[in-house]
Amino acid sequence: MLYCGLKMHFNMKKELKKFSAPQRRLQRQFFYALVVQSLGPTIFLVLPTTPILLTPLIPPSMEIKISWQTGWLYTLIELYPPFDSIGFMLIVTEYKKVIKSQIATFMSNKPSQSTTASISTSLRTSDRI
């Protein structure tokens, strides 16, 4: 994985000289997002399970009794999908812009108290009719 990543990095460096500056920036962001997405499974899936998978090999040879609580492992495994998506969205600036505009739109569309009061008043009068 490391070999392929380095080879891809150096090949991209050569090829990106042919692109415009915005395209180079976008391609670089995609490369960083790819690196983060490849680190996700290592951090959340491989590293936590390694001690658990190696544990059966240790007790017979060293005569040690080991008892694991594995609830934390399920938590780490469940953190992987959001980490993968959120990491990509935070690295690529185009996604960041869209997310910020969506949040701004959501926050500006919240009804004010005066609007809420007038809606509830009109609902009460329509119930009487």
UniProtKB/TrEMBL annotation:
It comes from the Eukaryota. InterPro entries: 7TM_GPCR_serpentine_rcpt_Str. This is G protein-coupled receptor. Keywords: Membrane, Transmembrane, Transmembrane helix. The chain crosses the membrane at residues 30-52, 72-92. It comes from Caenorhabditis tropicalis.
